[in-house]
Write a structure and sequence with these properties.
This protein has 199 residues and is an alpha+beta fold. The protein is built from five helices and eleven strands, in the order H-H-E-E-E-E-H-E-H-E-E-E-E-E-E-H.
């Protein structure tokens, strides 16, 4: 029944990323986790624009970036039931969801915030790089009860992960980027940044 319900779900709808900055930001967040997070291989999933399906009959959420710990990558990505994040198969929602604001119509600060809180996602992060919704470029929320509470600290305590804004160059674009940090305040580096340091 589980496989049947996964097979009947529409997992790919050919919707695309809406701008170059968002695409680069997503790559930076995902790549640096895989290169720098000191966790055993196969103990977390991080990706961008992958459907998160709360239940077989529910519409998916498609976060710009998500991170989920203690879940392995499905064994065969050619199988439709392994190509998306099915919460009922993974056993939990993602631990972190990041939404990147590109316009005022995305609902990141209202509808999506409520949706992720309702689905039990512990941390919800809004990156508003061009200040479309407010003067704050970065907002970090932690779920308390059934709602999110805006955090002063940019530290995801249960994951031992920090987030913050960093001005620098990634993929030939100098900009303010959202980056991961460890508990000592050290930046999580991409593979290219590691190689550059070694040189």
């Amino acid at each position: 029944e589980e496989e049947l319900s996964s097979e009947q779900v529409i997992t790919e709808d050919d919707e695309t990323v809406d701008n170059f900055f968002a695409a680069k930001q997503q790559r930076l967040l995902v790549e640096s986790l895989y290169h720098s997070w000191q966790r055993p291989p196969g103990t977390f999933l991080a990706d961008a624009n992958v459907g998160v399906f709360p239940a077989p009959a529910e519409s998916p959420l498609v976060p710009d970036v998500f991170v989920s710990t203690d879940v392995p990558l499905p064994p065969n990505l050619q199988n439709k039931q392994d190509r998306s994040y099915f919460v009922w198969k993974m056993g939990k929602p993602p631990d972190v969801v990041i939404e990147i604001v590109s316009n005022r119509k995305g609902g990141e600060a209202d509808d999506k915030l409520q949706d992720y809180a309702h689905r039990g996602v512990p941390y919800y992060i809004i990156l508003d790089p061009f200040r479309r919704l407010s003067k704050r470029q970065l907002r970090v929320y932690e779920r308390r009860g059934d709602n999110y509470v805006l955090q002063k600290e940019k530290w995801l305590a249960s994951l031992k992960l920090g987030v913050g804004l960093w001005r620098g160059t990634f993929e030939d674009l100098k900009e303010v980027w959202l980056r991961w940090y460890d508990e000592d305040g050290q930046l999580f580096l991409t593979g290219g940044e590691h190689a550059k340091q070694e040189r």
